[in-house]
Amino acid sequence: MAEQTQLSFEGNAYRAKPGSYNAALTEVGRGTPMGELLRRYWHPVGLVEHATQTPREVRMLGEDLVLFRDKKGRVGLVHARCCHRGTTLYYGRVEDDGIRCCYHGWLFDFEGRCLDQPCEPGGGQNRDRIRQPWYPVKEQYGLIFAYMGPPEKIPVLPRYDCLEVMDEGEFLDTDDTSIGSGGAVVVPCNWLQHWENVVDPFHVPILHGTFSGTQFTPTMNMMPAVKFEYSSLGVKVVSDRVLPDGRKFKRVTEVCMPTLRVVPNPLVGKFGRVETIGWTVPIDDTHYRIYTAGRVTQKGVMLPRGKDAATVKSWGEMSAGERRARPNDYEAQVGQGPITLHSEEHLASSDQGIGMLRRMLSRELQAVAEGRDPIGVSFEESAAPIVFEAGQHIVE
Ligand code: FES
Ligand SMILES: [Fe+2]
Fold first, then answer.
1. 34, 141, 188, 340: which has the fewest C-beta neighbours closer than 10 Å?
2. How far is CA 261 from CA 197, 217, 257, 304, in A?
């Protein structure tokens, strides 16, 4: 071993203070500041094909739920714990009118009404007095959306122009994995770590370019000139690059409330408005998942989550050693820990987008705490679809 001599103990780890995280920005349970902010919006809780006559476990914003579709076609999302004596309705049986608990057979409809108590006289004479806790759901873009907030504040389910207006040959596709999660479905870290990554354009040429080899395209390996701006729904990032042939390439990515990642395809296959949007869905404080909907011309190729260029393996097939050698978003973000320790960060000038995103979230937490409606919440049924600026363009 080479001899090393300590000249000074400045920065010595023994003096480091214990780290802490910003709970208001990251924790999503009921009654927490962020939990209440997020509960003012609709969130996807599954693909439409996940709602079937086989009950499905859904963990969302720290709550354990069960999703099902009764034999009349109505979708129910109810608390997993049966309101009788608490077993999970995951083991329940779906019938014409609802889901029947496996333990004592109480039957609940899609809005939690108790329709039958077979062990009680007369099928339960007082069964109208109880209700299995439930949430309203809607189907749109191939997804099941749920609203888990105060009923008197229920907003309309927003529509998005980029998912409504198809170009020639395009159709809508939906997926529950994402490039940003490395192909994994459930990612074991806080949702904000992923969302902040969307307004971090500088990691692209480093992590996805020089460090791990080209993970997107050589174009994306170039260090961009970047501007960050607030939009009406969140924060947008404008990255300019000059292509080798002298043309100017402008790329706009956005984060929009509540958890949207609006990111043009980093493979830069074609120019134009953004093709896909992704919902960064907090499962609980230390897990998230992504649902993506987008315009495609071919089924199942919406996201550039193909094989790693060097190993020719998908993320799931790569060994720990291969992932160590060629880290991607999953490694970088899960590597920050279950909830990153904000007290230990040293934000620099390239983190301007992160600072703006956190300030925007803090403003909206304040709005909800003061009884106001957060941005992007609309009660107007006839509101036009939301148009994003996100896209990639050649500018003259
Ligand atoms: S615990 Fe569900 S019916 Fe008894
Ligand atoms: Fe990335």
1. 188
2. 9, 20, 9, 15
Token code pair at residue 190: 């806080």
Going by CA atoms, what residue is nearest to atom 1 of ligand 1?
85
Q: What per-residue confidence (pLDDT) applies to 218?
A: 84
CA 205 to chain centre: 23
The ligand 1 site (C-beta within 6 Å) comprises: 82, 84-87, 101, 103-106
Q: Which of 79, 81, 82 to mutate to test the pocket of ligand 1 (most atoms within 8 A of CB)?
A: 82
Partners of residue 145 on adjacent β-strands: 44, 138
Other C-beta atoms lying within 10 Å of the C-beta of residue 366: 13
Most confident of 50-59, 241-250, 259-268: 50-59
- Its sign, for the CA torsion 196, 163, 238, 308, is positive
The CA 283 to ligand 1 mean position distance, Å, reads: 26
Is the pLDDT at 166 greater than 60? The verdict is yes
User: Please, which residues bridge with residue 265 across strands?
Assistant: none
| Of 186, 187, 215, 198, nearest in space to 307 by CA | 215
User: Which of the 8 DSSP states describes residue 300?
Assistant: T
Note if the bond before 18 is cis, omega within 30 degrees.
no
Tokens standing for residue 89: 């309705």
Q: Is residue 178's pLDDT more than 70?
A: no
271 or 83, which is more confident? 83
Q: How far is the CA of 211 from the centre of ligand 2 (A)?
A: 12
Residues with CB under 5 A from ligand 2 (ion): 329
For residue 334, pLDDT beyond 70 = yes
Say whether pLDDT at 384 is over 70: yes
pLDDT at 179: 57
CB 174 within 8 A of CB 143: yes
Give residue 217's pLDDT: 83
Residue 83 scores a pLDDT above 60: yes
DSSP 53-107: SS-EEEEETTEEEEEEE-TTS-EEEEESB-TTT--BGGG-EE-SSSEE-TTT--E
Q: Whose CA is nearest to atom 4 of ligand 1?
A: 104
